[in-house]
Structure formats: C-alpha cells, structure tokens
From TrEMBL:
Belongs to the histidine acid phosphatase family. Keywords: Membrane, Transmembrane, Transmembrane helix. GO terms for molecular function: phosphatase activity. This is Phosphoglycerate mutase-like protein. It comes from the Eukaryota. It holds the Pfam family His_Phos_2. InterPro entries: His_Pase_clade-2, His_PPase_superfam, Histidine_acid_phosphatase. The keyword Membrane applies. Coiled coil: none annotated. The chain crosses the membrane at residues 401-422.
Amino acid sequence: MQYEEINDPSTMAHPQVHGVVVLARNGDRTECPHDPITYKASSTATTPLGEVQSHQLGSFLRETYINSNSPSHIRGISPDLVDLSEVHVRVKVGSEGAAVFDSATAVLQGLYPPTSKNRITLANETTVVAPLGGYQYVPVETVEPVNDRSLESWTNCPAFQKHVENILKSDKIRDAEKKAQPFFNTLKDFVFGRPLNMENIYNVYDYVSSELVHNKTYAHRLPPTFLEQTRGLANLRENAIFGDDRIGGIGNIASRTALSSVLKALQRIAFNDDPLQFMLIETTYQPFISFFHQTDVVKKHPELAAIPDFGSALAIELRRAPPPDAREFLRFRFRNGTHSPFETIHVFNHHEDIPLTEFIYRLENSVVHSNREWAQACQSNSVNSWFGVEGADANSRVTDAVIGMSAILALMLFAWVGSNVVKRFRRRSYVRLQGDEMINASHHVVHYGTQGEKSRA
C-alpha cells in the first residue's frame, strides 16, 4: 500500500516535530466473540505474539520520535529516562480490556526500554538500579466505559444499535450475504456450528484468523483463500457499521469521541508552557475505521475502509514551521500492522499538512467532548449524564456526586432522627414520674439551654 507524498510549503520548510499523538490498536489476542448487534464482548487475553507486536510498535515509535538522529525526532523530548510530564497514556479497558492494557504496557516497554540510567544513589553512597536492568515504569490512565465513554462509545448506545440494525437490513449487506452463500456452504466445515451470515461474519473472521495463527492442525486444513474471503466480508460489514457519510453521523461515533482526547492533547502540545509532548491512546480497531471516514481519508484511499491489523498505529504529528511562519501543522502517518512503514496520508482532501486551527474548525461540531454529549448523540438516559459528568475526570466527579448525595441523605436522616428524639424527650419531660423511674430519668434526660450548654434535669 503506497500513499502519495507531495512536497508542500510546510514540508519544504522542514518544520520541527513538537509532539505526537498516537492511536494504536492492541496486539494479537485470543478469540473474542461479541454480540453482533450490541457489540457486548466476551473475555479475551493477549498472547505472547500480541505482546511482541506491541513491543515492536513501541520500538518503532522510539526510533521515529525519541531517537535524536531521526528526522521526525520530537524536539526536546527526554531521550533515555522517561519524563512523566512529557508522556501521557490513555488505555481503553472496556471490551477486550485485558488485551488492550497488556498491549499498552508492551508498547511502553519498547518506547522507553530498561536503562542502567534508571538508578538512584542513596545517602550511604550505595547505587541502586531499578529491577530488570533499569525497567521504566510509566503510569497509564485506564478509561472505563462505565465512567468515560471516550474510548468505547458504541456499546450501550441506543442510536448506534439502531444504526447497526439498519445497516444489516440494507440492500448492500443483503446482496453481499446472498452472493456469499456458496462460500458459506463450503466454510461451514471450518467454523463448527457458528452462524454463517453477514450479521455474524466478524465473529467468524475473528475465529478463523485466530485458529489459523494458533492451531497447527486447523492451519493445515484451511483452504488458502478462505481467510481472505472471510476478511473481505468482515471488512465490508465493519466498514459499513463504523463509517458514516455524515461527519457527525452516529456511524462515526467511535472516532467522534476518541477525537476529544486527541484534540485536547494537540492543544496542550501546541501550548508552550505545557510539557506534554507524546500521547499514546491504546484502543481497538473501531476508531480507526471511523476516523478515516470522518476525515474523508477513505475517498482517496478506499483500501483503508477496513479492519486494521493488530499492532497498527495512526500518528498525528504536530509540526511547527520556523519563523516567520509560526503556525502549527498536522501530519498524519498510518502504519497497518507491524511489518509496514509509516505512510503519510492527508485528511479532508488536502494534499499537504493541515493547519491545526483548520483541523479543529472542521471537526468542532462533530466531536463528542463529554458523557453528556455522548448521551445526547446516543439518545440515551445515561446515569452519568444525570450527574453532568464530563471529560476524563468522570470517575472522580461521579464519586463526588454520589458522596454529595449520600451526605445530603445522611443529614436529612440525622435531622429526622434528631427531631423525633427531641420530641420524645419533650414528651418524657411532661410525664409524672414516681419512685425508681424518677431517679433513672434524672440521670438520662438531657436538656439544651438557649446558649447550647448541657444541663441535667
């Protein structure tokens, strides 16, 4: 796959790379069936192959952006020891969460490998190197769809579910299913009872591709073209579902929410007083398809209207031209899988790097920036939207809201109990007591004076 590389003013001026946002797909994992309508997924786990793929991606990103000899080197970024103020990582932990998290860890191991420089000298002059030869621990922000919909916006979304149902009823999908019936009839002996139709074709492809990689007997039996045919049908289905002709259409919801994190990171990188220079967003395949539709990339590169391979990455470079032109430009580079180089692609039918301001302007009415906006787009009465939860701090704000409501309820209960106790005490004060009862009462009934001082009756 080759992309046209055109000389443009920003390229000719050799602008410096000031920062990069990378959208990365997880590495190889075990089979992960999901509901073909709701996309609710079963559990899965990364494999050693997936960890190697992600580590290779991290090493590739290091050579491209961290190595000072690279023409795309990020100006001023720490080359050996990670500076945690310069790097931020967001990881999707919803569907396929375990595999995505492990993949992010492997990417970071390649991006900032162990180094003997990761050491400390103690007061007694003893030098201690971090474990595993100087392993570097980079914290990650986990993004759970329960509290933050930015990296998994297509599940529990009524409008998207309706969109899926409509796509599966469309003439395009029905015609594809009709034409694929002869292939389905020959494939049935290799899927062991799994439904063979366009509704379930992604699950079929996921099973076939996983078995082909991990099951030697299966790999010897599967006819040579079956994987390609299955993948072609799965690409047709997922592209139709996770794409939309309208920039703000519900089919693009995966990238519309993910782009909120991207735009915030780019704006931080562009701000000179913010130290952020590298953002990694580890996710699954869905945002890639939507992004290429939302930014019109598929019009020039229809081959990208497909499921990206494991370990794929989209890098968005913020480049600043030298004076007197101090504008920021964005260059988009895509790498499909771990065996292809970065190739430059252009968004919104540009033939050159796009100014950051224009990119933001073109997207501003389609990007979903908060859980409240997500609920509106999905026509969903989300509990998070009731609390007004927005952005990446959704978890803490939900917690604060729950604590606040709990405190109010506790105060109301305390007031009710207190008023009843006072009423009870007041009633006791008017009861005529005799004998031992009067003695006990004189020790246990407490009155509060007008100045708040306690006195015994």
